[in-house]
């Protein structure tokens, strides 16, 4: 009886041991390997089945440049306050504010308001540190480099791209892609706020550019909805952006002038501006 | 007493064997050199203003795969995209379309390449607000290297004419 019992256990354990040597289904094992790699190395490896299409988010600099080229003039007092970074409580709130500050820094650099831009860079460095991305700027002497190039807009734009690149890469390498969408959402709202507050001038095509920016909102909302983050602040912003997206779906049919652009009705711009202001208020409200 | 000893002995054997089997890890060949690829991409972006790079990590499988990047475009701008696949252990094909997958009836193939690095431009005459870049990743055959997981990355840079 004892021998039989021993033989049964031995056979069972050998069976399990053989399982360890046996060649596994390569697809499943590779995916498990990916999961391990993600945890251990913090490298983002896409799940083939989950991600079929990736939307490339435009940079704040491109959006800012488009608005400037459309005739957007600098106005003091329309940018966000820089004295409340320490008051944003959650990572989501800080990430939204970070996006706002990226947009404002771009706006200032493009309009040669370099001292103000430097203050935004300061806030950006504080917030990246606060959301765990402190390594982004380590050893870069970024503020000093910014200071050294205050009179050279092209060099400042290059620095701005460098900052954005570093943040993007760090987020990606640390599997924090959700943050990228949240930061972008904050920046998009601020960009739209700046555009919507532009004075109406002859030949100014800012309104058309506002309508054009609405075409990427659906993707931004999609990315935010795909995020599992659920702070009240982010939930509010996500819901409000979704409502704005639905509003644009209604008016887009009226405003789309065919393949060469949009002629957005004034009342539609006003309504978009109103909704954007509310969302911006939610982001900046402590 | 003997019975308890026997059970303990068998348990120890079981745990040791399970640990020996569980410790096995598949080999991998990861050829991604992101920084080098990104530098090459930025260099080729001239004279367009470099905007950003996007890195897609690939694990080759024993079945074909397609990954799509949808890039937004804005009216009256010229764009340049530079794609570098030097960080992949196997060649792939890149196809650029004006419509997303699933809506390819009548879609225009804008560009196609199997080169390790290439670029294409989108001019002001392009009328859509997106361009769709497909990475067509072929299956790898199970042969002598079937225990080595083949991994790598594709780096794509985007830029626009200085506005």
Number of helices of chain A: 12
State which percent range the strand residues of chain A make up.
Answer: under 5%
Main β-sheet description of chain B: 5 strands, mixed
CATH architecture annotation name of chain B: Sandwich
Q: Pair with the most extensive interface?
A: A-B, 54 and 52 residues
Content-based structural category of chain A: mainly alpha
Overall 3D geometry of chain B?
A: elongated
Mean pLDDT of chain B: 88
Helix content of chain B: 10-25%
> Quick one: biggest sheet of chain A?
none
What letter string, H or E per element, gives the SSE order of chain A? HHEHHHHHHHHHH
Question: Low-confidence segments of chain B, ≥5 residues, pLDDT <50?
Answer: none
The CATH class assignment of chain B is Mainly Beta
Shape of chain A: globular
Using only C-alpha atoms, the radius of gyration of chain B works out to 24 Å
Oligomeric composition of the shown chains? heterodimer
Helical segment count of chain B: 2
Description of the molecule:
The complex is a heterodimer of chains A (286) and B (163). Chain A contains twelve helices and one strand, in the order ααβαααααααααα. The longest helix of chain A has 24 residues, at 232-255. Chain A has helices at residues 2-21, 26-41, 60-69, 91-110, 114-130, 142-148, 153-173, 177-196, 206-213, 217-225, 232-255, 266-284; one strand at residues 53-55. Chain A folds into two domains: 24-54, no CATH class; 60-284, no CATH class. Chain A is globular and about 50 Å long. Chain B has a single domain (27-160), classed as Jelly Rolls (Sandwich), CATH 2.60.120.1090. Chain B is built from two helices and nine strands. In chain B, the strands form two sheets. In chain B, strands 1, 2, 4, 7 and 9 form a five-stranded mixed beta sheet that branches. Chain B has a four-stranded antiparallel beta sheet with strand order 3-8-5-6, with no helix packed on it. Chain B starts with a helix and ends with a strand. The interface between A and B is large, with 54 and 52 residues. Strand 1 (53-55) of chain A pairs parallel with strand 3 (65-72) of chain B.
């Amino acid at each position: 009886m004892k021998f039989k019992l021993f033989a049964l256990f031995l056979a069972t354990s050998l069976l399990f041991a053989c399982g360890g040597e046996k060649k596994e289904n390569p697809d499943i094992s590779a995916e498990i390997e990916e999961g391990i790699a993600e945890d251990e190395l913090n490298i983002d490896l896409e799940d083939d089945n989950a991600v079929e299409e990736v939307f490339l988010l435009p940079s704040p600099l491109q959006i800012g440049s488009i608005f400037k080229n459309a005739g957007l003039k600098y106005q003091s007092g329309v940018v966000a306050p820089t004295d409340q970074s320490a008051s944003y409580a959650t990572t989501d709130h800080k990430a939204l504010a970070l996006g706002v500050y990226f947009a404002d820094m771009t706006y200032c650099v493009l309009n040669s308001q370099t001292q103000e831009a430097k203050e935004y860079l300061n806030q950006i460095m504080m917030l990246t540190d606060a959301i765990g991305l402190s390594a982004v700027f380590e050893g870069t002497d970024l503020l000093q480099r910014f200071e050294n190039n205050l009179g050279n807009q092209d060099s400042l734009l290059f620095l701005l791209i460098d900052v954005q690149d570093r943040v993007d890469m760090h987020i990606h390498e640390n599997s924090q892609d959700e943050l990228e969408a949240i930061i972008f959402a904050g920046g998009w709202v601020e960009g739209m706020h700046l555009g919507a507050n532009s004075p109406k001038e002859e030949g100014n095509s800012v309104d058309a550019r506002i309508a054009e920016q609405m075409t990427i909102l659906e993707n931004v909302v999609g990315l935010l909805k795909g995020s599992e983050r659920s702070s009240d602040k982010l939930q509010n912003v996500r819901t409000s952006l979704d409502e704005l997206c639905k509003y644009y779906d209604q008016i887009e049919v009226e405003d789309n002038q065919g393949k060469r652009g949009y002629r957005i009705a004034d009342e539609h711009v006003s309504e978009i501006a109103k909704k954007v202001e509310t969302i911006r208020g939610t982001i900046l409200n402590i | 007493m003997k019975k308890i000893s026997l059970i303990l002995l068998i348990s120890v054997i079981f745990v040791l064997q399970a640990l020996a089997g569980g410790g096995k890890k598949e080999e991998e060949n990861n050829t991604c050199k992101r920084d080098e690829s990104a530098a090459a991409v930025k260099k080729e972006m001239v004279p367009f203003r470099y905007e950003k790079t996007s890195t897609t990590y690939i694990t080759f499988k024993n079945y074909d795969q397609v990954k799509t990047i949808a890039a937004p475009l804005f009216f009256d701008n010229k764009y340049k995209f530079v794609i570098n696949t030097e960080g992949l252990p196997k060649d792939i094909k890149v196809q650029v379309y004006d419509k997303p997958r699933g809506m390819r009836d009548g879609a225009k193939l804008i560009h196609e390449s199997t080169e390790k690095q290439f670029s294409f431009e989108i001019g002001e005459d392009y009328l859509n607000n997106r361009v769709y870049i497909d990475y067509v990743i072929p299956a790898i055959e199970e042969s002598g290297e079937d225990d080595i997981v083949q991994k790598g990355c594709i780096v794509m840079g985007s830029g626009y004419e200085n506005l």
